[in-house]
Amino acid sequence: MSYSVLKGLCLLRDNYFILPTISAFVNNFFFYFGLVGILVALLATLLV
């Protein structure tokens, strides 16, 4: 009983550390995607 509870707590702790890194990665991805989109739009307007 206590072993499964400890295992669950360890999994919860690991997920608690994994989730923020995933959200940070997603935020950075959208940030860079937006920057690339802006650069492409600027290049397109310059070329046209």
Rg over alpha carbons:
21 Å
Q: Termini distance?
A: 69 Å
User: Which strand-content bin applies to the residues?
Assistant: under 5%
Structural class based on helices, strands and sheet pairing: mainly alpha
Quaternary structure classification: single chain
Number of domains: 1
Characterize the overall form. rod-shaped
Look at the structure and give the mean pLDDT.
84
Helix content estimate: over 70%
Give the ordered list of helices and strands: H
Largest sheet: none
Poorly predicted residue ranges: none
Q: What features would you describe in this structure?
A:
The chain crosses the membrane at residues 29-47. Keywords: Membrane, Transmembrane, Transmembrane helix. The protein has 48 residues and is mostly helical. The chain has one domain. Helices cover 96% and strands 0% of the residues. The protein is built from 1 helix and no strands. It has one helix spanning 2-47. The radius of gyration is 21 Å and the shape is rod-shaped. 0% of the residues are buried. The mean pLDDT is 84.
Summed up, what is this model?
The chain is mainly alpha-helical and 48 residues long. 96% of the residues lie in helices and 0% in strands.
Give descriptors for this structure.
48 residues, mainly alpha, 1 helix, rod-shaped, transmembrane helix, membrane, transmembrane
